[in-house]
Specification:
By secondary structure, the protein is α/β, with parallel strands linked by helices. It folds into two domains: about 25-115, 3-Layer(aba) Sandwich (Rossmann fold); about 160-290, Nitrogenase molybdenum iron protein domain (Rossmann fold). It is built from ten helices and ten strands. Strands 5, 6, 7, 8, 9 and 10 form a six-stranded mixed β-sheet that branches. The chain has a four-stranded parallel β-sheet with strand order 2-1-3-4, sandwiched between helices. Helix 5 packs parallel to helix 10. It is elongated and about 60 Å long. The termini are far apart. About 40% of the residues are buried.
Length: about 300
C-alpha cells in the first residue's frame, strides 16, 4: 500500500501492508473535524476509531487522538488504524506522524487549505479512492454515495426560481468581534454568499481582521454575524443588535437600516459537507434581509 498525500505529487515511502482497509475492515483516525463530518455524511461513521477534540458531532466514546497541531501518538498506536486522515497547517504534515504511518502500515492522507466550496467538494470526491481498493464493490458503492452528496451540496447552493427574493447588497460576514474578524474571498461562506447573488463587502482573501474605521469606510449594507449555537440546544431568537456588539454603533448603512442578522448553525465555522445545511440558513437570512423583516418578530 502506498503512503501518499491527497492532492500532492510528492512520493512517499512504502509502509507495511495491512490489507486494503475497505468495508468493515476500515479503522479511520480523523484528525480533522471537516473530514470527520464528510465521513459521517458518506455513511462511514462506524469506521471512525479516533477523532479530534473538535469533532463534537461524533460519539464522545470515540477516543481523541489529536488535531492539526497536537497528536497523541501512543493512543494512535494503540488504536492501530488502517487510515489516518489529517488537515495540515502551512508547516505541512507532522514528520513523526509520517514516520509512524510507515512503521505501522497506516495509510496517511492529508489535505491543506480546505477553505472554499471547491476544497470541500475535492475531499468528497477523493475519499472513496482513498478508503477503498481499486475495482472493488466498496469503491463503486462509496463513489455513488459521494456523487449523491455532491449533488446535495449543488442543490443547496442553487437559488432556483426564488433568486429574485434574496438580498444582493454588500454584506459583511463577521466571525469575531474582538478584534473584528470577517470572511473574505476564497472562504466557503464567501462562496455561499455570492452563489446566492449577494456581494461580500470585503475584497481581501481569507479570514480578515478589520478595524472599526475599516468597516466604516467599507459601509456594508448588511451584516451577518456568524455565532454557532451549541450542538443539540434549542436556538432562541437573539437580538441582532446585541450580537453585533460594537458594530451596531457604527454609522453604516447596515446599522441605519437595521439589516443585521445572525447565522447560528453549529458547524458554520467549519468548511465541510455541513455546507448544505449552512447554505439553507444563509438563504433564509438573505430572504429576510430582502424582505426587511426582523428575526424573532
Amino acid at each position: 500500500m502506498t503512503l501518499i498525500a491527497a492532492g500532492c505529487a510528492e512520493p512517499e515511502a512504502e509502509p507495511a501492508d495491512k490489507g486494503d482497509g475497505q468495508g468493515s475492515d476500515l479503522r479511520i483516525a480523523s484528525l480533522s473535524p471537516a473530514v470527520s463530518r464528510t465521513l459521517v455524511d458518506l455513511g462511514l461513521e462506524a469506521g471512525i476509531v479516533g477523532r479530534s477534540p473538535f469533532c463534537d458531532f461524533l460519539d464522545p466514546a470515540i477516543p481523541i487522538v489529536g488535531d492539526l497541531r497536537n497528536v497523541n501518538y501512543e493512543r494512535l498506536i494503540e488504536l492501530d488504524p488502517t487510515h489516518v486522515l489529517v488537515q495540515t497547517s502551512q508547516k505541512g504534515i507532522d514528520p513523526t506522524l509520517r514516520e509512524l504511518a510507515v512503521e505501522h502500515g497506516w495509510r496517511l492522507e492529508q489535505w491543506s487549505g480546505v477553505d472554499s466550496i471547491d476544497d470541500i467538494e475535492r475531499v468528497v470526491r477523493e475519499l472513496p479512492a482513498i478508503l477503498c481498493a481499486p475495482g472493488s464493490g466498496e469503491l463503486e458503492e462509496l463513489t455513488a454515495r459521494s456523487a449523491e452528496l455532491l449533488n446535495t451540496i449543488a442543490a443547496a447552493l442553487a437559488p432556483g426560481r426564488g433568486a429574485g427574493e434574496l438580498w444582493r447588497g454588500r454584506t459583511l460576514l463577521v466571525y469575531a468581534l474582538t478584534p473584528v474578524g470577517v470572511f473574505g474571498r476564497g472562504t466557503y461562506l464567501h462562496d455561499v454568499l455570492v452563489r446566492f447573488g449577494a456581494t461580500n463587502a470585503v475584497s481581501a482573501d481569507g479570514w480578515v481582521e478589520l478595524t472599526l474605521e475599516d468597516i466604516t469606510r467599507l459601509n456594508p449594507q448588511a451584516i451577518i454575524v456568524i455565532r454557532p449555537s451549541p450542538r443539540g440546544t434549542a436556538v432562541k431568537p437573539t437580538d441582532a443588535m446585541e450580537a453585533a456588539g460594537v458594530l451596531a454603533t457604527l454609522d453604516v448603512d447596515a446599522v441605519r437600516a437595521g439589516r443585521i442578522e445572525i447565522l447560528t448553525h453549529p458547524d458554520a465555522l467549519m468548511p465541510s459537507t455541513a455546507i448544505s445545511e449552512v447554505a439553507g440558513e444563509m438563504c433564509r437570512i438573505l430572504r429576510r434581509l430582502k424582505e426587511g423583516s426582523v428575526p424573532g418578530s
